[in-house]
Amino acid sequence: VTSPGGKLPDPPLPDGLQQFLRDSQNELFTEMGARLDTEAGLAAIIGRKSEQDAVRPVAGVGGQTAEIGLSLGRSRSIQDDRTVNGTAGTGPRSTLSGTDAPRLRVIISPGRSKIAGGPNATVGGLLVRSGAAKLVIVVAAVLLLAVGGPIAAAHYFAGRNTAISTEAVIGSLSEIEQVHVATGSFAVNVKITQSVGIIPCFLICDQQELKGSGTDDAIVNLNGLSKEDVSINQSTDAVTVRMAAPVIGPADIDPAACTITNSLGVINSATQGFRNNPEAYRPLYAEAATQVHNAAEHDRALLAEAEQSTRAMLTQVLAAVGVKHVTIDFT
Amino acid sequence: MTKRSDDRDSEFSRFYAASIARLVGRCVLIGAPEEDARGIVQELMIEIYRRWPEIRSPEAYAKRALAFRTADFLKISARTVARDQEDLTRLGLALSNGIPDDIRLVEERPLILEALSQLPPVQRAVFALTYDGFAPTDIAAILSMKKSTVRSNLRHAQEALRAWWEQKGSSTEGGREP
């Protein structure tokens, strides 16, 4: 039984089925060809000023702002930041995220945020929390209310034939400062042996071990995009955005998902004050965070997922200003 | 073969026009949604254009690179959906649990997609790649799984397709064969 390029193992498929597969595959290719805008796709590659301006047509993706929540929500949504009771300050971060936590977090410059209501305002039924210098909000709310709504409305009233302006593109992107586009979860196992004060370790020694998991986010930063970073192809409504590739942010260690054990010597077992001092575990958490961060930086799938998520997000955002095709050129 | 730069655009244009639909179709057969398949193939085309002078056989290069890119895409999709699973390193496990239902929304026609939609994602990918001429060793590398796993998935896929075909035939008995 010979396939178009290879040999299927025995037992063979019935002749009729093979013929059906061949015919149907050809039908599929024909249909694909009929639905593709080959000319535009090719022009996006060779009809540009430089190779870096190659445009990736993603026909049909992100054409409607109504799809924002659904599309992004399918792959990832908002990071749920929670303060860990009783452990704040003991770890490198006081926030944690569960393994099933949604994963897209948008940080808007406080001065530019259009979301009102204070640090714990509810936007679209979802909780908005405020940090000291940044506001973490729901991406769907950001895109629909802060960015997509007004711009889409302006675009609507301006008419469909309005050219895409660099200012509009920059304007919509500059509303977003940072986006946590993907989250990875990693196992950690850290052992630290440290002496107590100046006493040599062979006399008194504290051995701590942390086992558990932590998370780390891939972050893209849209802050500082300039006109030079945006190329527009008016004939195909395509935009190329040059921006820094996603980077791995600081790790979050989830104390609730970690177990800390001590292998204390006889003398140390009596030093309850030392054992109960949360600060004593800071080096353990710091090392765990380093371990998670390193693992995240080497997780190619996480970075690839981050890039894919960034493309989807910008496609959605820029659809509001009439952009049909978005190419992200990660520098 | 080194291609002269002044021929590059015309050669690439011919290659693009001749192969774009087939590549998107292959990507869809392996399991990517059509719209994602377009993006995957276009990005592949950009890479091929950039590397045009050094690629000796664009067709073979595109076919193989597309398989890897599609597998990576499916792995990411599955990884995203099945985030709470501990072991996401094996494509088979991830795909078995993670492909969103809406992937099948675009697979109503043609009938080959109806046939392949009967298969679990891993079996589908293995069958599509085999049908496209990849050897089990290649498929094992593309899908990050053992060769024996490839063979067993292929066997199950063929059994399922045979059963689907027979059922299809019996349901149209008295009429034309499916």
Give a description of the structure.
The complex is a heterodimer of chains A (331) and B (178). By secondary structure, chain A is of the alpha+beta class. Chain A has helices at residues 15-35, 38-46, 68-75, 139-158, 166-174, 272-276, 282-297, 300-319, and strands at residues 82-83, 95-96, 105-108, 122-123, 126-127, 129-130, 135-137, 178-195, 205-221, 230-233, 238-243, 247-253, 259-264, 325-330. In chain A, α3 packs antiparallel against α8 and α4 packs parallel to α8 (300-319). The longest helix of chain A has 21 residues, at 15-35. Chain A is flat and about 80 Å long. The two termini of chain A are 47 Å apart. Chain B is built from eight helices and no strands. Chain B has helices at 5-30, 34-50, 58-81, 91-98, 111-116, 121-131, 136-143, 147-171. Chain B has 178 residues and is an all-alpha fold. The interface between A and B is large, with 51 and 58 residues.
**Shape type of chain B:** elongated
The whole-number mean of residue pLDDT values of chain A reads: 61
Question: Percent helix among the residues of chain B?
Answer: over 70%
**CA radius of gyration of chain A:** 26 Å
Q: What is the averaged pLDDT score of chain B? A: 76
Query: Uncertain regions of chain A: pLDDT < 50 for 5+ in a row?
Result: 1-6, 48-161, 265-276
Please give the number of β-strands of chain B: 0
Sheet with most strands of chain B: none
- The SSE order of chain A reads HHHEEEEEEEHHEEEEEEHHHE
Distance between the termini of chain B: 45 Å
Q: What's the end-to-end separation of chain A, in Å?
A: 47 Å
The number of helical segments of chain A is 8
pLDDT < 50 runs, ≥5 residues of chain B: 81-108, 174-178
**Roughly how many Å is the radius of gyration of chain B?**
18 Å
Quick recap:
The complex is a heterodimer of chains A (331) and B (178). Chain A is α+β, with helices and mostly antiparallel strands and 331 residues long.
